[in-house]
Structure to design on (287 residues):
């Protein structure tokens, strides 16, 4: 239903509206920048680190066998990229990491939602998590090689287990810390248990799930390096270890920096995915 402005106070309403509009004339709306300050800072911080690294090596006269200058590492990085050595190593590690991360994340989210929602399932799963989670996942790798062989399956399973527990624990925390008033309100409005689970519990746990995914992405990169030290002749971890054995210091640093770049990209991707799938998540903007 539409309402005529003339019926809402006549001249007094019109005069008040004119005063408000006059006050807004001097108000300057913030202009949207193409390069937000946070983005600029994130780009500049590693560049400043590289400049400081170069100065320390050049001025401090540090031996290149211990800390090669960034420019020499960059030349090796370009050479490894041009001849296909580095892209192939990244691709092989990506396949192993991607499979382990995907399977571990899906399993962790599904089990975590049910553990957080059902007391019976929590009683069954919680002792197993408490017993297995503290075990270093790299210590399980020899056992997985015995079970699944020396190929990629043992590496994928090791990464899967490492990601699984981080995502599972964070998912359970997200379900447990959900405001019970929301669940009671949904029940009072006639929602079924399935609707509550899908429309209330799952969206409410998403911020914690994405926290687990970020932690899982980091542990996946660590474990792919560990698993590529043995029984393989490909991958970024293998290339890094081979560089160490041959004392190719610049190449070793190039591999280390590549691991760091992959970590940054995976974190940024998960953060972007969180903004898309979880826009209601509370974010704190620091000025």
């Amino acid at each position: 239903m539409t309402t005529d402005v003339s019926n809402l106070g006549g001249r007094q309403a019109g005069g008040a509206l004119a005063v408000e509009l006059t006050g807004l004339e001097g108000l300057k709306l913030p202009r949207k920048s193409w390069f937000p300050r946070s983005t600029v800072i994130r780009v500049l911080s590693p560049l400043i680190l590289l400049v400081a690294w170069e100065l320390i090596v050049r001025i401090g006269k540090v031996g290149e066998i211990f800390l090669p200058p960034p420019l020499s590492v960059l030349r090796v990085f370009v050479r490894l990229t041009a001849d296909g050595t580095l892209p192939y190593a990244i691709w092989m590690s990506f396949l192993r990491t991607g499979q382990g991360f995907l399977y571990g994340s899906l399993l962790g989210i599904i089990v975590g939602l049910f553990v957080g929602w059902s007391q019976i399932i929590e009683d069954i799963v919680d002792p197993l998590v408490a017993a297995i989670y503290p075990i270093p996942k790299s210590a399980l790798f020899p056992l997985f090689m015995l079970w699944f062989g020396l190929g990629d399956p043992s590496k994928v399973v090791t990464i899967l287990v490492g990601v699984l527990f981080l995502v599972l624990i964070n998912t359970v925390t997200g379900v447990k810390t959900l405001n019970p008033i929301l669940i009671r309100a949904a029940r009072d409005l006639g929602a079924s248990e399935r609707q509550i689970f899908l429309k209330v519990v799952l969206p409410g746990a998403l911020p914690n799930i994405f926290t687990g995914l970020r932690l899982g992405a980091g542990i996946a990169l660590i474990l792919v390096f560990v698993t590529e030290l043995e029984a393989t002749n490909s991958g970024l971890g293998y290339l890094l270890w081979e560089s160490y054995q041959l004392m190719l210091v610049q190449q070793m640093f190039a591999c280390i920096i590549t691991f760091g770049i992959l970590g940054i990209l995976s974190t940024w991707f998960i953060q972007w995915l969180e903004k898309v799938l979880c826009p209601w998540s509370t974010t704190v903007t620091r000025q």
In short: The domain at 91-117+138-278 is CATH 1.10.3720.10 (MetI-like fold). Residues 193-227 form the longest helix (35 residues). The radius of gyration is 27 Å. The chain has a mean pLDDT of 83.
